[in-house]
Amino acid sequence: MRRAISKLKPLWHGLVLMGFVLGVLGVLDAVPVFVAAVPPLVLITLIGLGVVLGSVHPRAEEHEPCAMAAPVRGRWAALNTPGQQLPSHGTRFLGQYCAIDILRPTTADTPAKVRKAWRGSRPEEYLSFDAPVHAMAPGVVTRTWSGSRDHRARNTWQGLLYMMSIEGVFRSVAGQRALLGNHVIVRHDDGTAAVYAHLRRGSLSVQAGQRVGVGGQLGEVGNTGNTSEPHLHVHLMDRADPHTAAGLKMTWENITRSGEIEPSLQEIAKEPAENAVRSMPRNGEIFEA
User: Fold this and answer.
1) Is the pTM of the predicted complex or chain greater than 0.90?
2) Which of 11, 34, 171, 256 qualifies as a FRET site for 284, CA 20 to 30 Å off?
3) Under the phi-then-psi rule, with left for phi > 0, alpha for psi from -120 to 50, and beta for the rest, what region is 140?
4) What are phi and psi for residue 208, nearest 5 degrees?
């Protein structure tokens, strides 16, 4: 039942968007006559239905983390990681229960997380940008998207506010491509599937139907979709369709952890929650693959 409801996610999100738009029109006193004629209780019920059903996501049975190879090489830092808590991104939407974001450790030349400027930093200014992304396990590519542009970082106060309000709402409603940006989905030989998101436009080196081996290059890190700065987002699912998939726990076998914390992420480097995947790096922790 959860999968059937989750498959209609665009419909539920459409109802929520309708409520958001009507709210804005109401503030502007510009609600269309045909909408004003509908009883308020009916509109409230439809919007409430969208909120409730839109929060229904598939869940996997309790299991040991699936062993994978890391999707990158070299030194990286973890953020919004299952090594800190589950759900790692605060949601199970699109199978993200055990998702992880990773980015290159900062240097003196890395743009600040938040700065005073009119525009955000260019993606090319970040070390993570255009780093190779590798397959975590062997399988077949089931879906790719490469039509999203690499946007500037949301590292100004106005940029962050825009991302967390207007942009965030519309990307959530627009769905998979708007959130993940350029991405690749690989269905593994054991039936699980992995999502690699926020890839650089023009960097994809695979296409749907193509078989890839563990470590095979899929593309490069970009800044597309719902992202504040260039980084790689990956997560594991129990099937290749994110709308009907349940997120799965995973662990990377080929990483070395020193316990070192990325300075720019020091504020979020806390002790892991009880349900954290202890074999994965926690928030802010630097690892090498």
Assistant:
1) no
2) 171
3) beta
4) -55, 135
Determine the Cα–Cα distance for residues 173 and 67; give it in Å rounded to an integer: 33
DSSP secondary structure string for all residues of 223-280: --SS-SSS-EEEEEESSS-TTTPPEE-EEETT-EEEEEE-GGGGGG--PPPTTS-TTS
CA distance 20 to 106: 38
Nearest 10 degrees: Cα torsion 170, 174, 178, 183: 160
DSSP alpha helix (H) spans, 55-188: 157-162, 168-174, 176-180
pLDDT tens digits, residue range 135-167? 999 999 999 999 999 999 998 988 878 787 777
Name the DSSP letter for residue 201.
Answer: T
Helix axes of 40-54 and 9-27: crossing angle, nearest 10 degrees: 140
Question: Nearest CA to 129 among 230, 32, 233?
Answer: 230
Please, what is the end-to-end C-alpha distance for the chain in angstroms? 39
